[in-house]
Amino acid sequence: MKMRSFDQEKAILYLVATPIGNLEDITFRAISILKSVDKIYAEDTRNSTILLKTYQISTPLESYHEFSQELKEEQILKELQAGKKLAIISDAGLPVISDPGYKLVKLAVEHNIAVSTIPGASAGISALIASGIAPTPYTFYGFLDSKHGKRIKELEELKYVSHTLIFYEAPHRINEMLLDMKSILGNRKICLARELTKTFEEYIRGTIDEVIQCLPLKGEMVVIVEGLEENFQLDHPLEKIDELISLGYKPNDAIKETAKLGNLDRNELYKSYIQYKNNK
Ligand code: SAM
Q1: Which atom of ligand 1 is nearest to the CA of 197?
Q2: Of 38, 47, 147, 273, which has the highest C-beta tally within 10 A?
């Protein structure tokens, strides 16, 4: 359904990017929208107060975080249905990206309320462009699961992705995350981008092993990982098809995907797979 964003009379939900460290990384437009809306919903009002004070924004501020808050969502929806213009901000970067906001966006869209993006900094893309690793195509993953078993399963699913991968991670988990990554993805080339836009901004580039040598590291960090090598040899294509089917792929899609991965002839692979299944 078509939806124009800027109809003066109508309610709107703005998703406003805020800085990821350096307070100067905010757009003129973000400031003017934050000044003009009826209310700002923030992930953490204490954090956002610093930013709002810096830019003399005195718009009413209220908290919104996704997990506790069905009632808050109802309240926000009611305000939008009453014609209010609202903004969502998170502690850093783009709301919705590994941050609260998606449920509200979905709700607004379902209720035909305009949603508009006010772009700006985001840690993942900022790290990607400076990483020296192929910028496109990329897969933004965000945080891997904090539990070892689930994290391994997630990494298994990413093992054959040829795109550059973007991860967020907390400093106290970076060591175990990189060790798991090496055991599943192999000792790939990565870039750990730390404290972006802040005084101690730093990029650590090398293989996973080389980067692990530099730990422990403090601060906020993004890990950019090179995709599966182009000249990668798929040693067990038939098992790979089974693996993809067990992950939910339809058999034909699994064969197509495996042929692509291993640079194999799809029809030949199809015939071999039928034979392999019949002999099992
Ligand atoms: N919404 C944010 C965005 O658009 O990037 C991400 C929020 S997520 C809860 C926080 C994670 O983003 C951190 O744990 C870290 O991985 C990454 N991050 C945020 N700011 C960063 C910075 N200045 N330098 C490096 N990583 C950062």
Answers
A1: 23
A2: 273
